[in-house]
Amino acid sequence: MRVALFGGTFDPPHRGHVGIAKAAADALRLDKVLFAPVGRQPLKTRTTATAFADRLAMVNLVCSVDTRFEASDIDMPRADGAPNYTVHTLAALREAMPDAALFNLVGADSFLELPRWHQPERLLELAEWIVVSRPGSPLGGLTSLGLTPRQLARVHLLETVHEDVAATELRERLHRGDPCADLLPPAVAEYITTHQLYT
Ligand code: ATP
């Protein structure tokens, strides 16, 4: 079984998320991509994130577009309010699926921040990484991370994706009353309207 963790704020999940998950599943022959909204992202200071329940519900809707996609609450908010660290999530997945080939799926912008993540070396040991190109974050910048050849061998670069969409910009457009139909899966757009999110 080949399984990728795909963590993120997903506030809201958009066409870019679907695009990179499909590209990764095809290229790495993944059986499962686990879309896991994060309770509290350690590196993001914005405190007004949409409720976890709404983000999980929207991710659930997105996952219906591909049988390889599955929504997961593994990164739900912690009872003590502490941030969710990917290193703990991957360790939990490894324990739950000892025989699986485990991957961590991220966009290039996230991977460039790896030195700021909790326990970066352990993160690269716990899973192979799939790093997808993102407009504005050239994969060439990855050389600045100074990874060892052994670490680099565990990183798969996917340079064929060019999804120019970001949730921050989407939230601003939604707030201005633009339905963003071109950037959102239809079911997510409908959920946002019904629940009056980002108004
Ligand atoms: P925000 O603008 O609020 O920071 P975001 O659009 O970056 O949000 P996240 O939910 O934080 O979305 O992203 C989850 C993961 O998906 C991250 O690893 C991010 O790099 C990646 N990602 C999101 N959008 C894209 C995109 N358009 N192209 C490539 N990777 C992306």
What features would you describe in this structure?
This protein is α/β, with parallel strands linked by helices. The protein has one domain (2-164): 3-Layer(aba) Sandwich (Rossmann fold), CATH 3.40.50. 35% of the residues lie in helices and 16% in strands. The protein contains 8 helices and 6 strands. The chain has helices spanning 15-27, 52-63, 86-96, 108-111, 120-126, 149-152, 167-175, 186-194; strands at residues 2-8, 32-37, 69-71, 101-107, 128-132, 155-158. The protein has a 6-stranded parallel β-sheet with strand order 3-2-1-4-5-6, with helices on both faces. Strand 1, helix 1 and strand 2 (32-37) form a beta-alpha-beta unit. Helix 3 packs parallel to helix 5 (120-126). The termini are far apart. The mean pLDDT is 94. The site of adenosine-5'-triphosphate has 18 residues, from helix 1, strand 4, helix 4 and helix 7.
Write a brief caption for the model.
This protein is an alpha/beta fold and 199 residues long. The protein is 35% helix and 16% strand.
The pLDDT mean sits at 94
- Total helices: the number is 8
Q: Which stretches of 5+ consecutive residues score pLDDT under 50? A: none
CATH level-two architecture: 3-Layer(aba) Sandwich
Q: What strand order characterises the main sheet? A: 3-2-1-4-5-6
What do we call the CATH homologous superfamily? HUPs
The number of E-state strands comes to 6
User: SS-based structural class?
Assistant: alpha/beta
CATH topology name: Rossmann fold
Q: How would you name the oligomeric state of the polypeptide chains in this document?
A: single chain
The main β sheet shows up as:
6 strands, parallel
> Which class in CATH terms?
Alpha Beta
Determine the N-to-C terminus distance.
41 Å
The ligands bound in this entry are: adenosine-5'-triphosphate
Number of domain modules: 1
